[in-house]
Amino acid sequence: MLKVKQFSFNPFGVNTYVVWDEATHQAMVVDPGMTDASEQKFFDGYIADNALTVKYIVNTHMHLDHVFGDNYVRDHYGVKISAHPADAPLGALVDGQAAMFGASLPASYNTKAEITLHEGDELTLGEYVFRVIEVPGHSPGGIVLYCPEGEFALVGDSIFAGSIGRTDLPGGDHATLINALKTKVLTLPDNTRLLPGHDMSTTVAREKTNPFIV
Length: 214
Fold this sequence. Notes:
Blueprint: E1 2-9, E2 14-21, E3 26-30, H1 37-49, E4 53-58, H2 64-67, H3 70-77, E5 81-83, H4 88-92, H5 94-100, E6 115-116, E7 122-125, E8 128-134, E9 143-147, E10 152-156, E11 159-160, E12 163-164, H6 174-185, E13 193-196, E14 202-203, H7 204-207
Parallel strand pairs: 3-4, 4-5, 5-6, 10-13
Antiparallel strand pairs: 1-2, 2-3, 7-8, 8-9, 9-10, 11-12, 13-14
């Protein structure tokens, strides 16, 4: 069985997910957003309490709030960071993104994906497979991780319950995002749970009436 633990980290309230296979205890960390020692300790406690082996770090995209904890998890657990290469400039300019929002960071959070993910790539946890789906528009390299067996998809900031990701940030494109959502996300089975980068989960069936898409 797959387990999914959702954390809410940093001032942006990003959803960081730890997805793990109960049989093997292999884990994937999606969008690590920890910014301070207390958040890191909370995260580490969950990993230790469940005796997990972190196999992947995956960024659905590389906006600052989704990558704050990248370097910590990489260094602490010895796992390479994975993301779509089109978002590499965002990872390299996390500190600049913070300045754009008027935020002052205590240290540099610039980061780099060492493993590139593309449409159709697959990641495995035990017997479970996660398919990479390219969903650009919120950022140039936005991806979704879809697990058919688990009947859920980790969608980052591409879509929310009754809303969609903003497209006014550098590299965003509204028409591109809407097209990707219509052709790649809302074509998944209706019962697929959509686990977003902020706020509550939803389903494909519910979002077929999303006013920002229809």
